Every structure is written in C-alpha cells, then in structure tokens.
C-alpha cells in the first residue's frame, strides 16, 4: 500500500503542534487514496511519542535514532531521510514549513530525485494521484496551484496553522531504521541557546498583537505587550519598528520576517504594506487599529478601529481584563 510520510518536529522532547497539523493534512489525502499515514522521526532519541502520534492519525512510525543526530545537521539529516526514502519508497513526504525543513528538504529532493514545493496553504490529490499544492504568490495577491508530474516522492512543506489537528485514537506500528551516518566535520554545532520566551512563538501562536511605526518608540510597546498578555497572544512588529531598533528582529512579521497564520491578528499603528501583508495575510481574523482612515490596512482587515492607538489600546486591554 502507498504511504504518506509526515516528518515529526520536536522541541525539548515534545512533539510540536505543527506535526499534528501536518498529520491532519495527510488525513485529507488519505480520504482520497487510502494510503497509510506514517510519522517519521529523525534525531537522537524519539522518547515515548508514538502514542501521541497515533492519537493524531499516524498508523506507522518510522524512526532513525542516532547520537550524531542530537543537534540539527542538515547534511546528516538529509542523508538519514534520503536513505529511508530510497528503501521504503513513499509516495508523498510532508513536513511543516519550518526553518529546519526548508534547510534540509531541498538536499533530500536532490538526492532522491523527488519534487519539492514549500509553504503550502492547502493540499489535495488529483485523479491521476498527483499531489496538488496551493501556495501564495506575489506577496499573497494570488494563489497558485502547483501540481507534481511523474515524480516520486512528492515532497511539500505546509504553512503552520493551515490545518487543524484532528484528535482520535490509534497506536502506530513502530519501525526502527538504521542508517550509516558518516562523521561530518564540515558542520559543527558549537552551542545551542534556548531563549526563554515570555509569550507564544509567533509562528505557532493562535493570537498575535503587532505594533508598527505608529508606536513611536520602543517603550510604548509596553501597551502592545499588555494587550497581548491579556489575551495570551504572541507579540510581533512591522519592519519599520524593527529597523528603528525598538524591538528585536525575531518579532518581525512579513516578507523578510516571519510568516504567521494565527486565528486573530491585531495590527496596531501598522499601515498594511504588501510586504507586511505577505507575512500575516492568511490570518483568520485581522483587526486594525490606526488613526488614518485611508490606511491600506483598512482594506485588508475584518474589523477596524479608526483612532489614536494610545487612546484605544489601554481601554481595549482594560475591557478584556474585565471579561476575566
Ligand atoms: C524588500 C522589502 C521587504 C520588506 N519586508 C518587510 C517585512 O517583512 N515586514 C514589514 O512589516 N515590512 C517590510 N518591508 C517594509 C514595508 O514596505 C513598510 O515600509 C513597513 O511595513 C511599514 O511599517 P509600518 O506599517 O509600521 O509603518 P508605516 O507605513 O509608516 O505606517 C505607520 C502607521 O501607523 C499609523 N499611526 C501613526 N501614529 C498612530 C497613532 N498614534 N495611532 C494609530 N495609528 C497611528 C499611521 O497612520 C500609519 O498608517 C519591506 C520592504 C521591502 C522593500
């Protein structure tokens, strides 16, 4: 039977939500072609994650465990995945559109002769069993449908938050694979630093509040953080705010920042440039707060508040806090 592989993403020994989202995407394909959904782990040790993976749809669980895979090394990860692809011949390989996958999957595609497309917002299977991928073009102004032809496996990464995890029950068959992994001195991880996060990571956040040039300085971002904390949101920024040195680059949303897809995106003092929209346009609900009634963001939002952010934000945060 044909197989759809889903790459398992973990952080601090826990399965990241994006893995469950991609398992949900695989379930959509399975409805059409009855493939077996397989989770695939590559790393030092998977721990006891198979039950979690089974609960979200994995019927089989391939794992390549090796101490040399402790730190992410694109070359070794590419070797590990390429070798088990050649051995087991899956039809489709899916992963989250994470930096790690964007880094090593092109190498895997090149070594296995696979087709690859990244950042899908939806996927489907054609009547000829070809994977079809919808992805944004021209900074989100249009959506292209990309179809694979006569290539196997078909590899795609899926935008975070594009699919909702589907919880069920199940217990996957576990298959341990061994791959010869040569010592790789070209690439060495010297140190890994985990930056403590006060708020949800933007690419995984369900809600985001972002501030732009309208915040006028870095200290004023406190009212963005207050609103974000009152609703359990991540805090982002436009490039103008980042370039002004008010907030760090890791908060930048947009074409040259992070691509986010939360259920709620609140843009505060942000005009709504195409480059900013490219990073947050697929948010489910967009709320804009801006004092200029002609700001382009008002053409792109679901709800708009036209007013001075320094008047609006404190009141909004207080009212939300009252709701408990
Ligand atoms: C190649 C390239 C890549 C880029 N990548 C990115 C990217 O990744 N992300 C990104 O964001 N930009 C990016 N940009 C920059 C982008 O073009 C815009 O310059 C930027 O998004 C503008 O940020 P802004 O909306 O905060 O500022 P502005 O466009 O200056 O808008 C500020 C807004 O705040 C409002 N405002 C001011 N004061 C108040 C107040 N007191 N109350 C309420 N509203 C107020 C104003 O009415 C205005 O609409 C890129 C540009 C290029 C050329």
Give the end-to-end Cα distance, rounded to a whole number of Å.
51 Å
Physical arrangement of strands within the biggest beta sheet: 7-11-6-1-4-5-12
Radius of gyration: 21 Å
Low-pLDDT regions: none
- Helices and strands: which structural class? alpha/beta
Beta-strand content estimate: 25-35%
What is the CATH topology classification name of the largest domain? Rossmann fold
Helix content: 25-40%
Each distinct ligand: flavin-adenine dinucleotide
Shape category? globular
- The CATH class of the largest domain is identified as Alpha Beta
Mean pLDDT, as a whole number? 94
* Total count of strands: 17
* Main sheet makeup: 7 strands, parallel
Overview of the molecule:
- A seven-stranded parallel beta sheet has the order 7-11-6-1-4-5-12, sandwiched between helices.
- It has nine helices and 17 strands.
- β4 (36-43), α2 and β5 (60-65) form a beta-alpha-beta unit.
- With 324 residues, it is of the alpha/beta class.
- The mean pLDDT is 94.
- It folds into two domains: 3-177, 3-Layer(aba) Sandwich (Rossmann fold); 202-322, TPP-binding domain (Rossmann fold), CATH 3.40.50.
- It starts with a strand and ends with a helix.
- It is 28% helix and 26% strand.
- It has helices at 17-33, 50-55, 74-88, 99-112, 221-230, 239-243, 274-280, 297-300, 309-322; strands spanning 3-7, 10-11, 14-15, 36-43, 60-65, 92-96, 115-120, 122-125, 131-137, 142-147, 154-158, 173-177, 207-211, 234-237, 264-268, 285-290, 303-306.
- α3 (74-88) packs across α4 (99-112) and α5 packs parallel to α9.
- The protein binds flavin-adenine dinucleotide.
